[in-house]
Design goal:
Elements (H helix, E strand, L loop, with lengths): L1 E5 L4 E4 L3 E6 L12 H7 L3 E8 L9 E6 L2 E13 L2 H11 L2 E3 L1
Parallel strand pairs: 3-7
Antiparallel strand pairs: 1-2, 1-5, 3-4, 4-6, 5-6
The protein binds zinc ion (ZN).
The site of zinc ion has 6 residues, from helix 1.
């Protein structure tokens, strides 16, 4: 059991390094201040399947600050899947035993 707290969010308890939650999909590294597509995407949170990585790989992944097992740090994550609605997310969470945080 991992304890995950995203900046400005409630502490979450997750059973693995996967979680389904609403989040803003990063478009690129420039961010909403400098990129119009980022600005558009920042307005809408999508329901996503997210995987955390606890060791950096050779791939460039988005990073965000999380508290995992009491340790604050910048962790890499990937958005593996975007669900079209809550029902689809719930069904997927049930089938795959993934923590749902909607
Ligand atoms: Zn962008």
């Amino acid at each position: 059991m991992l304890r995950v707290k995203q900046f400005f969010c409630e502490e979450l308890k997750i059973d693995s390094d996967y979680i389904i939650r609403r989040m803003i999909i990063p478009h690129c590294a420039r961010g909403p201040r400098r990129c119009e597509k980022c600005r558009i995407m920042a307005e809408e949170k999508k329901i996503c399947l997210v995987k955390f990585y606890f060791e950096s790989g050779n791939v460039t992944r988005p990073m965000d600050e999380f508290v995992i097992d009491g340790k604050t740090g910048l962790y890499e994550y990937d958005v593996l899947k975007i669900f079209k609605d809550e029902n689809e997310a719930k069904e997927y969470a049930r089938k795959n035993t993934i923590t749902l945080d909607l």
